[in-house]
User: Fold this.
Amino acid sequence: MSERSPEPDDAKLYSLSAWLLRVGNAVSIALLAAGLVLILVSGSRTAHHSRTLAEAWRGLLRAEPAGFLNVGLQTVILTPIVASASICLYAIIRKQRSLLIPSLLVLGGLVLSLWIGIAW
Assistant:
């Protein structure tokens, strides 16, 4: 039984998804590493933990270690959400219901877990 080779559009979708995940992970690793370096250099402990994106970005712009750590963690969380949303958009444009339904379920699960994590 031979495997079907991916069509050019499918290959583009796979490479776009992989690129989004790689870039998101690289950015989050860089932000987390910068936050850890700032903690080591300043010698302070980070007692401040922001609950919103705006607070985290303000801390990042002020070069606070907690800001780098919070934005890095939020980037880790938002990366698969953005990748799933791009797959949903692709499925809507191509009118592929067989791809849209599972990707919407994955996106819904990710958003639900993010909401539960923020609420509690």
User: Anything to note?
Assistant: The CA atoms of residues 49 and 69 lie 9 Å apart. The chain has a mean pLDDT of 83. The two ends are 49 Å apart (CA to CA). The chain has one domain: 20-119.
